[in-house]
Design goal:
Blueprint lengths: L46 E3 L1 H6 L5 E2 L4 E2 L3 H15 L9 E11 L16 E21 L2 E12 L12 E11 L4 E3 L5 E7 L2 H14 L2 H11 L3 E2 L1 H14 L4 H5 L8 H13 L10 E2 H12 L4 H22 L11
Antiparallel strand pairs: 1-4, 2-3, 4-5, 5-6, 6-7, 7-8, 7-9, 10-11
Amino acid sequence: MRNLIIMPQAQNRVRMSLNDYAEEATVVNEQSVRPANANRFIEANTQEVTLYHLSHDCITPVFSKDNELTINHASFIETIQDAAASFFNGERVEQADIRVSHVIKGRIPEAVHKPANQLLESDKTIYYERCAFSIDVPSIYETVGGNKLNLSIVGVRAYNQMNLYSKKVPELFRLAIGFKNQVCCNMCIFTDGYKDDLRVSNTAELYRSALELFNGYNPAKHLHLMQQLENTSMSEHQFCQIIGRMRLYQCLPTGYQKALPRMLLTDTQINSVAKAYVSDDNFGSLGNELDMWKFYNLLTGANKSSYIDSFLDRSLNATELATGITSALHGDERYKWFID
């Protein structure tokens, strides 16, 4: 047994104590325990690419009115990778796992009038509208519910959420730090580890904002929150009630819906939660009580089918739903509607 080794402070590298929150962790073999078919932190319609591909094979979009360059995906990833290596100096920081979607195809000027079937590879240009990446810090981990959780940094960039037809303005990024469940690669995001509206004009500002996020994140509190989910369970009847309420939520009148806590999962994802409850090898509980840690992972597992631009918002919402419904099972009123 040993205590979890947790992140250093940005300035003096003093390690933080978990005595107020976390329990002693069980030593886990460093070899991966996740199955080969569960190695993606996000799925949807994404594809895996390398940083080299983004840097050398993709063009960089510009703001059309002044022809100013955007911060491209490669620069975003490299900046956060550098910030992570600096802040977690002495820890093992892995290279980014990168996934992209919505390829935008173009041509070089010399090939404008060529028929499509005569285009050479050198005539083509591409970039990706959306990009997400995950940087693991496997030397910082804890065990919750029998699952090894590694510290992980996740970034999201979506050009479709910006107006590239304007003059250059601060650009929108999303950045989160939390824990990744190694048995399934589900991302666990908590409020103080997420910046959903990070707007910067250059990579220096991006680097500084990343350090501020890392420094402000309280991993001990996040781990304690997840550990507490194990202590509450629901019956199969209550689970079915919650699934029904989540389906109903999508159909409620706008005013009625606004009076309730937000629920961002789609009908398809809610169906995935129900299916996983029956058949998932790690978190399924058909015929038995379901503890809230498993329920949380059913939600985060369903979220892996989100598109890149909504992935982190729904990751956070999964935490809100799991903790809120846990409180409702103990008598809290705010999420009571989901279990009534």
